[in-house]
Amino acid sequence: MNDNLYSKSVNYMKTLCEKIPERSIGSEGNREATRYFKTIMSSFGWRTDIQEFDAIDWVDGGATLTVGNSGYDVLVSPYSLSFSGKRQLTSVSTIEELKNSTFEGKILLLHGEIAKEQLMPKNFVFYNPEEHQQIVSLLEQGNPKAIICATGKNSSVAGGVYPFPLIEDGDFLVPSVYMTEEEGKRLLPHVGKEVQLSSDSKRIPGKGYNVVCKKGSDNSKRVVVTAHIDAKKGTPGAIDNASGVTALLLLAEVLKDYLGDKQIEIVALNGEDYYSVPGQMKYIEKNQGQFESMLMNINIDGAAYKGSNISFSLFELPHELKAKVTALIKKHPDIVEGSPWPQGDHSIFVQYGVPAVAISSQWFIDNMDNQSITHTPKDNLSIIDYGKIVTIAKAVEAFIRSVIIN
Questions:
Q1: Which of 171, 250, 315, 321 has the fewest C-beta atoms under 10 angstroms from its C-beta?
Q2: Strand intervals (E) in 31-79
Q3: Please, which residues have CB within 8 angstroms of residue 237's CB and are 6 or more apart in sequence?
Q4: In angstroms, rounded to a whole number, what is the distance separating the alpha carbons of residues 260 and 244?
């Protein structure tokens, strides 16, 4: 193990997860993280550029819900509008009930089947089921004063939080809060009664940035290596995804002597854990008509979990590139070929016809639907294997050199 890289791995992770207070989009911590990344990349001789986009920060002022003398535990839906008032409670549990119910001016409780899966934000373009779009449209058209969502767990989309916010969308027009399924069952008998709901939530307009770093002048067959630098509010985001960002910084150092013509592009994308993925949309805008110039994408997300093998999942790799990855895996006993998984920025490149390798932790891939770590305070430095971050950086370096130097 390279002691210098290991030490830097520890320092980078501590800075991103502890010294910087948070990395949620729109926050000053997020902007500090991108400045930090850009400064280090520049110090290794990489040409750096920033891609600016609009983003809103969000302040959670808390929420309360009472019926008569009884109180209920509720949480403010991320990026929701505020609400304070007393209104009649009504409820629906299915889309059919939603279609056939009148709830204008009331407080609407969503529970049961309709609240089992986190709704995709209405302007999320990469994956947005028709059923989700229909629910969002019916809710806005029905014009309730506020919405209460009784939810369980949905680890594959919402991470390890319980309860999960059914609605996490800064473009949604109705104030909302959420609660556990158990609290929802307690509240349900009060349908028809007046409930008092107060939810304090503030949207703050701001900016966010991707950081795009390059070496080499020939971009006709470029290799693009990515990791998202943002994190959910309320989590240090160690696995999701400071470890990926740290791997990029180590990779930049071990490739600092690269003087070839073929272009290597290292990108800190910003917004994977944000409702409208603004950094990813900005990157797509900047690369319209240029995705065919990408030889491949390597995306690092959820990597370096302590006690887990490193997972390389392959997406549409041509035979020659697949053979190189297979040969690399054989040289590393702690790297395995993982199952394909769509919940990451590599999916953007795959959708544009670019072959991809997604690097993560085997344990997370195998437990994506039931893990309770990501998007919570548990995603902290105690679960990180710093040596695995070094292994990833060195393995990606070897792979890139085998691809562009031939």
A1: 171
A2: 47-67, 70-72, 75-76
A3: 16, 17, 23, 230, 231, 273, 379
A4: 25
List helix spans (H) across 25-144: 28-43, 95-100, 130-142
pLDDT at 128: 77
> CA nearest 136: which of 152, 149, 112, 119?
119
Tokens of 158: 């919402």
- Phi, psi (degrees; rounded to nearest 5) at 65: -140, 125
Q: Is residue 140's pLDDT more than 80?
A: yes
Integer Cα distance of 195 and 45 in angstroms? 60
- Phi, psi of 88, deg, nearest 5: -70, 140
**Cβ-contact 298, 396 below 8 angstroms:** yes
Pairing mode of beta strands 218-228, 294-300: parallel
User: Taking 60 as the threshold, does the pLDDT of residue 406 lie above it?
Assistant: no
* Rg, Å, the chain Cα set: 22
Per the CB < 8 A criterion, the answer to whether 109 and 191 are in contact is: yes
* C-alpha pair distances (Å), 340 with each of 107, 309, 311, 358, 405: 41, 15, 10, 8, 28
Quick one: pLDDT at residue 367?
86
Question: Is residue 192 exposed (0-12), middle (13-18) or buried (19+ Cβ within 10 Å)?
Answer: exposed
Query: Taking all residues of the chain, what is their mean pLDDT, rounded to a whole number?
Result: 94
> In 3D, which of 390, 398, 80, 126 has the Cα closest to residue 284?
126
